[in-house]
What we know:
The complex is a heterodimer. In chain A, helix 3 packs across helix 4 (127-139). Chain A has 4 helices and 6 strands, in the order H-H-E-E-E-E-H-E-H-E. Chain A has a domain at 67-149: Nucleotidyltransferase, domain 5 (2-Layer Sandwich). Chain A is α/β, with parallel strands linked by helices. Chain A is 41% helix and 21% strand. By secondary structure, chain B is of the alpha/beta class. Chain B has a domain at 57-138: Nucleotidyltransferase, domain 5 (2-Layer Sandwich), CATH 3.30.420. In chain B, 34% of the residues lie in helices and 22% in strands. Chain B contains 3 helices and 5 strands, in the order αβββαβαβ. Chain B has helices spanning 15-38, 92-102, 118-130; strands at 63-71, 76-81, 84-86, 107-112, 135-141. Chain B has a 5-stranded mixed sheet, covered by helices on one side. In chain B, strand 4, helix 3 and strand 5 form a beta-alpha-beta unit. At the A-B interface, helix 2, strand 1, helix 4 and strand 6 of A face helix 1, strand 4, helix 3 and strand 5 of B. Strand 1 (45-51) of chain A pairs antiparallel with strand 5 (135-141) of chain B.
Amino acid sequence: xxxxxxxxxxxxxxxxxxxxxxxxxxxxxxxxxxxxxxxxxxxxxxxxxxxxxxxxxxxxxxxxxxxxxxxxxxxxxxxxxxxxxxxxxxxxxxxxxxxxxxxxxxxxxxxxxxxxxxxxxxxxxxxxxxxxxxxxxxxxxxxxxxxxxxxxx
Amino acid sequence: xxxxxxxxxxxxxxxxxxxxxxxxxxxxxxxxxxxxxxxxxxxxxxxxxxxxxxxxxxxxxxxxxxxxxxxxxxxxxxxxxxxxxxxxxxxxxxxxxxxxxxxxxxxxxxxxxxxxxxxxxxxxxxxxxxxxxxxxxxxxxxx
Lengths: 153, 143
């Protein structure tokens, strides 16, 4: 009996079906590396929040009328700030608009007034352009924004 | 999984705790990758806005996504709500009103295609306003 057992052990060690740790670590490293690279290049969904007008609670305190600014977006993507054309339709970051809005906000804050921006987007203007204008408003730290489709009256 | 070791002898490399750490890291990266991918709808291309803000986690349960795909033929929006395409947008109104009644903090996330005409966004905003919902979010992609 003893002889038979030792013979079996010898056979199994020759075949070597044991668990190999080194290749497993290699595989885990490759998978880890893949997900680490993927995590850096992720497309994340973010948002611009706004409140629709007409639902503000009335207050007894007197309300200061804000400085109103109009931004118009034409069908071709040209942006106008109070009828002055700013940036070209090809510029996605709208640097002139953002810096002008930032200056307006700073001057309004100095005079203790709030800035209200109304965005007039033409019916056929691209939604991407509207979002780019909202992005410029976010950079200029302007939070009071209203929307209007069509040209200003 | 980790075995004992150390003692009075020299410190030696332990394979088992290293595997533990590796697996934890792997699970972490798998989780964050799949969690972010789930939020992106591949049927539409979101507009790009690098300065848009993260959606607050505490509002996630109050959010209702309204997808507006681009119908290139007539250059109009295709309204998709809960995987159902609405040809007549008036049918959405009672649904939105019911959702607002059920949840006072309801926030509608408008997920519009970047190529959509702005007039279509205004149209859905009118419906959302008629349903008595005042909290709107415009979804955008970071890159």
